[in-house]
Amino acid sequence: MKNTMTYSVALSTAIETMKDTMPEVAERLTTLRETLAKRSQRSDDSKAKASAKRKAQNAEKRAELCAQVLPILRDTITTDMTAKEIFTNAQERLPQDFTVAKVQYILLHEMRDEVVKTETKGKANTYRLAE
Length: 131
Hints:
This protein is mostly helical and 131 residues long. The protein has four helices and three strands, in the order H-H-E-H-H-E-E.
């Protein structure tokens, strides 16, 4: 079980215990608790901003990659083809780090409105451009 005694809880308990017998100490502890709360809030804000920035950068990189890869895949898909066949035919024009799995991911996510997926039990799915 996780320990639920945080600094804030400990300070609040100490403040309540000391407010009648040692009011000066209770006052200083109250100030300390408020300072800790402000620091925590700033830290949460910083994390949220960093996360938003990271997401924006990733989206930008993804858009650049798609701008490069999507035309290649559109040119490659001529008939019903598996992701592996598409990859094999386009491999020379795709970025070096591209794999069959990446091609399939793009077919299913980035090009989902442009391709028709045909599922056949026991065989690999095939993809063709929508008309």
